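Q: Given only this backbone (364 positions), what sequence would you predict?
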């Protein structure tokens, strides 16, 4: 019998460093937010319209399995709706995966500069996170495989990765999968799939169909619906079955289900977002690359800019902030103190950021 005087969280919980979200404008101040990889073109107008249709019937529970959203996703992506699970954002699904497949004594493998939610969900499940060094900010398949032990149960891979923006070609993801034991779950988090332009990339759905130990996780947050909180996952039947046993019975609210279904079907809007992003991602990357600054090649809707030292990154951050541009510091949360992560925004935002960063670099 324990003699502690108050309730204690499970082991591991108090080792978790809380998630650090991107900064927002100070109250009463206007600023352009480029710190959370949100859409600069708003949401699909059809999604906005769909969201509003249920304002008069909020007393009714939604259909719990998000069927209408799964059917829309199945139709648009050519996937079996029975193998899709929706979540309250993809963070919800990452937590559920960890809860299902990790426990005390287990290990989960991830990249050192991988998405910062993976250590949180891993430790929340009582398991240990194993960080693997990258090769120049890109996932290193051999190093990931070398980190696998008999205790490994999950490999977390964001592709493209946040906050680096780098990606693994399909062949490399397949090589990673081929090197894993069949009892290890490979989680391919394709949060930025809509923005990838590289033609050797794959979202991961084909691998899910072929294998029994791969899931693909997706989100609507980066394509205009971050506030609605909608994520989804495509996986093998047995994983879907396990997740459906523990997810909240109504984990995606009705306005979100409707908005997500409309957004999925509005492929024209998605194409517009993608085109805008590709244009200004290329432009900003070219504009900033110089002797002083390095822009890591990105396939996402942000770029990671590296400065010669942490002091200059901090100066760039505060200069941008003073002039109304909020970007993301990645020292504390990601261990890259010389870097800043900048979301691709409007043309005005990109021109403003480029001008300021060039003058910071020049005044070095
Ligand atoms: C933004 C992001 C997510 C998730 O977001 P939700 O808003 O919870 O859907 C998941 N994975 C990565 C890598 C991300 O960058």
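A: Predicted residues:
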């Amino acid at each position: 019998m324990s003699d502690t005087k108050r309730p204690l969280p499970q082991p591991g919980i108090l080792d978790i460093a809380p998630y650090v979200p991107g900064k927002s404008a100070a109250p009463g101040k206007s600023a352009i937010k480029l710190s959370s990889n949100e859409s600069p073109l708003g949401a699909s107008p059809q999604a906005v319209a769909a969201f509003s249709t249920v304002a008069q019937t909020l007393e009714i529970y939604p259909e719990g399995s998000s069927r209408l959203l799964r059917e829309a996703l199945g139709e648009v992506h050519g996937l079996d709706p029975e193998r899709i699970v929706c979540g309250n954002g993809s963070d919800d699904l990452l937590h559920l995966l960890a809860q299902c497949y990790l426990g005390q004594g287990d290990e989960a493998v991830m990249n050192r500069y991988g998405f910062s939610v993976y250590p949180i969900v891993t430790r929340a499940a009582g398991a240990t996170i194993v960080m693997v060094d990258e090769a120049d900010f890109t996932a290193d398949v051999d190093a990931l495989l070398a980190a696998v032990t008999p205790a490994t149960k999950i490999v977390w891979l964001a592709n493209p990765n946040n906050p680096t923006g780098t990606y693994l070609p399909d062949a490399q993801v397949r090589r990673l999968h081929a090197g894993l034991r069949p009892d290890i779950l490979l989680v391919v988090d394709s949060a930025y799939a809509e923005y990838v332009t590289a033609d050797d990339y794959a979202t991961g759905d084909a691998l899910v169909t072929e294998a029994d130990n791969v899931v693909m996780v997706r989100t609507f947050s980066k394509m205009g619906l971050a506030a609605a909180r909608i994520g989804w996952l495509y996986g093998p039947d047995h994983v879907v079955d396990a997740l459906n046993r523990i997810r909240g019975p109504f984990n995606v609210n009705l306005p979100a289900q409707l908005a997500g279904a409309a957004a999925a079907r509005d492929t024209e809007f998605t194409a517009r977002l993608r085109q805008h992003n590709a244009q200004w991602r290329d432009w900003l990357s070219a504009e900033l690359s110089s002797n002083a600054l390095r822009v890591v090649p990105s396939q996402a809707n942000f770029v990671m800019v590296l400065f010669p030292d942490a002091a200059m990154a901090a100066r760039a951050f505060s200069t941008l902030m003073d002039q109304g541009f909020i970007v993301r510091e990645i020292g504390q949360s990601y261990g890259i103190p010389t870097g800043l992560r900048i979301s691709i925004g409007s043309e005005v935002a990109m021109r403003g950021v480029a001008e300021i960063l060039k003058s910071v670099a020049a005044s070095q």
